[in-house]
Amino acid sequence: AARDEAQLDKPLDDFRQKKLVTLGTPEIKYVSIDRPGGKLELAKEGESWKILAPEPMLADSSAVSDLLFSITGLQAVEYVDGADASAPIYGLGSHAKTVTIATAVPPSAEPTTQPATRSTQTPTTQPAPVKFTIGLPDTLLEKNLYVKVAGSNTIVKVSKDSLAFADKKPLDLRDKMVVDLDPNLVNSVTV
Q1: CA atoms of 103 and 28, how far apart (whole Å)
Q2: pLDDT in tens, 129-173
Q3: Nearest-CA neighbor of 99 among 158, 13, 18?
């Protein structure tokens, strides 16, 4: 009985879902990080990732995997109950960073090299895109940042370190391969 009473004394936050993203890394086919200074947009085509914006280029699959792992691993440190997301103290307005992930590339983001026969409608069986906004630090120590998931009236605090992926530059994610040669076709190498 004492164990049951201990459960009743736990704070509400102990029972809340801490994980912000329920999609698994393999399901994600699109990532957009919209921030002051420009938008970073990535899409998965077949088995490879491409950077769509700020300019098209191949992406490094291991760097994108790290990015996706960071996004899907996000957890709330604390819930901010009764908060008004429009209050300037949270920094969740138009100048905040916005991250969107989806299981399909939105038609507006598809490269123009895609065949025109592709359907422009997203199948209804796919989960809706997940979008969250990253705001200001909660204190002067800047240990946590305020975050709001779209469609939710809840603001949470998330570790600033776990949100470092939102500052990645396109060059951090660009494919690093210089030359792709079949070794069987190489007869000699001259330096």
Answers
A1: 5
A2: 899 999 999 999 999 999 999 888 889 999 999 999 999 998 889
A3: 158
